[in-house]
Structures are given as C-alpha cells and as structure tokens.
Design a protein that fits this description.
CATH architecture: 3-Layer(aba) Sandwich
CATH topology: Rossmann fold
Number of strands: 3
Strand content: 5-15%
Strand order of the largest sheet: 2-1-3
CATH class: Alpha Beta
Shape: globular
Length: about 170
C-alpha cells in the first residue's frame, strides 16, 4: 500500500526518489520511455545523452535523437514501433529484453519526472534493480504534444492516479 501511495504522490507532484550519485557509476545503460511526441522527448534525450552510456529507447524518441545528434544510431538502441497504444509496461518490458540480450545488467531509467517512479516500479517488478537519476525536472510538459495528457500538468494529474491503480491491478507494479 505504501508503494501505491508513493507512486500516486510521485505521479501527481513529479517528486521522486533518486539514487545516490555514486550509484550512477554502476550503470551500464540508459533505458527510456517517451512522454508525448515533442519538446519533452528532446529534453529527455538531451539529458540521457549527457550520461554517455548506451541508450535503449522506443521509436518515438528516435526523431529527438536525430534532431539532437544528426547521425544514425546503433540498431540496438531502438525498440521498434510499439504502436499508438503502448504504455510504460510495454516499453520497459521490451527495454529489459533488449538490455539482457546486449549483456547490460544495471540500467538508469530516464523518463518524465511525473512518470519515472512508475517506470522504475515496472522495471523492479520485472526483476531488475534500476537507478533513478536526479535532475529529471529539466524535462517539462509540452503544450504542442499530440497526447493531451502530456501537454499540461493538470491533465496528467487527472489521469495518473487511475493509471497507477490500473498498473497495480494488472500486477505490473
């Protein structure tokens, strides 16, 4: 019950528990979840690129990568097109499979600060202990996003408690 309360709190406020700075050195890759389809993803990609680790991310983040880097990326980095109705469970599940296939064992989870606690909970439920970095608050909401829920904080706050409960009922967290 405490985990559920924490995940709802984190999803409503963007305040999440972070790893100690020393544990960031233990990471061997970054796994990411998209947040809408615009500026938020570019902010997230910029944050992840600064870590200097191999990236594993969904197809929707590929455009942000190309806009920032202007070069092709390693094939192993892309999870492929998950379709319009994917969720954090789908993305993190595929990222863990790819991570294991590539021999990585300790990921840093990079996601929007209002979503990262739920993403990390999914990864833990899948048997991997993730590292959640500090400083994700540089990633904002995007009023131009195609996904209404990622445009404004108030829309996210209406939806997120229901999503956390849904994930719990599905035993994804």
């Amino acid at each position: 019950m405490r985990q559920l309360a924490y995940l709802i709190y984190a999803g409503l406020t963007g305040n999440y528990r972070t790893a100690l700075t020393e544990s960031l050195d233990q990471a061997d890759c970054v796994i990411m979840d998209a947040f809408g389809n615009g500026r938020s993803n570019e902010q997230m990609m910029r944050y992840a690129l600064d870590m200097g680790l191999p990236l594993i991310f969904p197809e929707i983040l590929a455009n942000a990568y190309l806009r920032l880097c202007g070069e092709s990326f390693p094939r192993m980095s892309r999870l492929g097109n998950l379709g319009p109705n994917h969720n954090a469970h789908d993305v993190m599940g595929l990222a863990i499979k790819m991570m294991k296939r590539e021999g990585f064992v300790r990921p840093i989870v990079v996601a929007h600060p209002y979503e990262v606690a739920r993403c990390a909970a999914v990864v833990r439920k899948l048997g991997i202990y993730p590292i959640v970095p500090p400083g994700l608050h540089v990633i904002g909401f995007d009023p131009t996003s195609d996904q209404k829920r990622t445009r404004w904080r108030w829309l996210w706050r209406l939806r997120e408690p229901l999503v956390v409960i849904y994930f719990r009922l599905k035993y994804w967290i």
